[in-house]
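Our preliminary data section would be incomplete without showing what the modeling component actually yields. Below, a chain of 338 amino acids is followed by its predicted structure, encoded as tokens that our downstream tools consume directly.
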Amino acid sequence: MTEPNDARVGLYIDFDNIVISRYQQLHGRNAFQRDGIRDFDKANPDADRAIAAKLAAATVDFNAIIDFAASFGTLVVNRAYADWSVPINASYQRQLMSRAVDLTQLFTTTTRGTKNGADIRLAVDVVEDLFQLPDLTHVIIVAGDSDYIALAQKSKRLGRFVVGIGVAGSTSTSLAAACDEFEDYDSLPGIDKSAAAAASAERPRASKKAMEAADAGTDAVADAAPTARKLATVPMFSHTEDAQLDEPEADDIDPQTVATELLLRALQIGHAKGDADEWLNTGTIKNQMRRMNPSFNEKPLGFRSFTDFLSSRSDLAELKEDGPQRLIRLRPEADSKR
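Predicted structure:
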């Protein structure tokens, strides 16, 4: 990877994708359409105060996104794609313009808004920049649609380091796998995690309501299910109500278990390249885990550092220090149990 001082970064924001995804992460699937947010004007004296409060809670902090993008190097391309005449989008203009974001206007030509137009325009611009700016080292795509898989793959083939940023619940697992690195919006430095935590706390209650409703044979299951699903990592091809999803939802997947299995596979791969009892560098193992699953990040799991994460898996692996290096190896008994 290019050194940060030499890196030149292109940031491309599918604005509608991230704003809609955040709202639906906190307020339920299809909530953006159901609450009429696209045409909602909070400045209107007759605006529904309850909807205004929900909208305020789902405000996206684009400063945090831009700051994270800048950590990779100098931002030489900084664009956001949307119909900026829409009230909800217009409310972000001052924040974005203060960070020198190029607001690319997309005009609404269908009843479904500018969703597909943003995908196509963003992809065309990225490919054009890849050829016109040979010194562009990083491509950062702020979106979760699987529509961008081909774009990520193409950018990697052309030698760029691809970073994705998406919202939990509206991120395609295939897109995350296509990137060199993928970050959840809530894991970015500076993001207030209280809203997402509150939404997450609702999941067990919603799931219990759904099960009780099923036992009682009522229709309440339909009401409870959207809330129970809203933090699942599932692909989002479109933000329309009739969107078809062809990947399984992940309601019951424990992220701690997923991380443990990822660590196990990384250690097994590391040992397969050398002696079974060989000590491996922890940095090498983390890089391997990120290559296998670019969305891996120990901080959303509750750990301040990767070392803390490894220490919590002491039944799986043992650690030691060798001067400035931290080393790790898989416990033989742990490997044999799997």
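The two ends are 34 Å apart (CA to CA). The beta strands are 8-14, 74-82, 102-105, 138-142, 161-166, 181-184, 280-281, 317-322, 325-330. Preliminary results of this kind motivate Aim 1 of the renewal.
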